[in-house]
Write a structure and sequence with these properties.
Length: 300
């Protein structure tokens, strides 16, 4: 089965969209906000907070970057109008960072103001290492407009602990994740053990330095380790939250975390760029292919 899953995952990019759609469905909350809002409301009703993201990255023109920027500004207004428990995550290259920093600065300025006007939170996702420093520059600018702004640190990067120390000079809010891109061994840990250990140390460092920590992982062993540490050290429950990607199976752990009074937030992507996103997700975890197929045939 593992080989079958791998073959399908490798072939996905060349398969027709109608074929890929059933595999994508568990990971993507629709193509429009109108569709996504039902998933978000259902998650909110189950006691989960959410963060929404418009799928896409590396736009190629300034016009496209401005269109996406406007869509993010509108999203804040829609979240407020629909009274959803939902904040916003954006990928800097989706609003122009692979075109120019100045252009992105102007765009993020508008989005930070939209977040401020609706008293909501803005998270800058972290992309691959050529964009790390520029993403910190964008964060500084956003924070000068609106305090409720945060960033992401990747546990595979050697530099991330220094970034915690630097960020802790003022109030800070970070999401810690393992990191999803391919990075060289000059700048990034390669082994799963080292990445997980660094993840745990980063979470401890953020919390000890009084930052707000979003713990973004589906690694149940790591979740258990962090849960034990926060309980043993009486860390206040309003200083951190657990985060997962929409659709990733968690064996009931999210419900049990929420039941214990921990904040759990689900990252909900939507948009017309669902094809590329889903192919990336399925290549990361080909096991999902047999899971989706099983459910598909069960339902028939
Ligand atoms: C809320 C959230 C936001 C993120 N934001 C960023 C970001 O800004 N920048 C960045 O570089 N990375 C981001 N990531 C991705 C992250 O860096 C990891 O690549 C990803 O979460 C897999 O690592 P893991 O900690 O879940 O552990 P792993 O050990 O990789 O996974 C644990 C288990 O979960 C399953 N699993 C993990 N990921 C998936 C998936 N996508 N689909 C299906 N099953 C899966 C695996 O089967 C595995 O058994 C984010 C992740 C989350 C949860």
């Amino acid at each position: 089965m593992a080989l079958f899953n791998k073959i399908i995952a490798t072939a996905l990019p060349i398969l027709p969209r109608w074929f890929v759609r059933p595999f994508a469905n568990p990971y993507v909350a629709g193509e429009t906000f109108e569709e996504a809002k039902y998933h978000i409301r259902a998650l909110n009703e189950k006691g989960f907070k959410t963060t929404i993201d418009i799928l896409g990255e590396h736009v190629e023109s300034k016009e496209e970057a401005r269109k996406i920027t406007q869509a993010y500004c509108d999203l804040y207004a829609s979240i407020e109008a629909e009274k959803l428990d939902c904040n916003v995550s954006i990928k800097p290259t989706h609003i122009g960072l692979s075109i120019s920093l100045a252009e992105t600065m102007a765009n993020v300025h508008l989005i930070a103001n939209a977040a401020k006007n609706t008293d909501n939170f803005l998270r800058l996702d972290m992309e691959n290492s050529p964009y790390t420093d520029a993403t910190f520059e964008l964060l500084d600018h956003c924070k000068s407009i609106h305090a409720q702004t945060g960033i992401v640190l990747q546990a595979y990067l050697h530099r991330s602990m220094d970034d915690v120390h630097r960020l802790s000079a003022s109030d800070f809010n970070v999401r810690i994740c393992k990191g999803i891109y391919q990075e060289s061994e000059q700048i990034a840990y390669q082994s799963e053990t080292e990445i997980s250990e660094h993840f745990f140390s980063l979470v401890q460092a953020v919390i000890k330095k009084s930052g707000y920590c979003a713990i973004a992982t589906h690694d149940l062993t790591l979740v258990s380790k962090i849960e034990s540490w926060v309980a043993e050290n009486n860390i206040p429950k309003d200083q951190f939250e657990f985060q997962v990607l929409y659709g990733v199976p968690m064996e009931g752990r999210l419900e049990s975390l929420a039941k214990k009074g921990y904040t759990v937030r689900i990252y909900v992507p939507f948009g017309s760029a669902w094809f590329d996103y889903s192919v990336r997700r399925l290549k990361e975890n080909p096991k999902i292919i047999s899971y989706v197929l099983k459910n598909f045939f069960k339902g028939k």
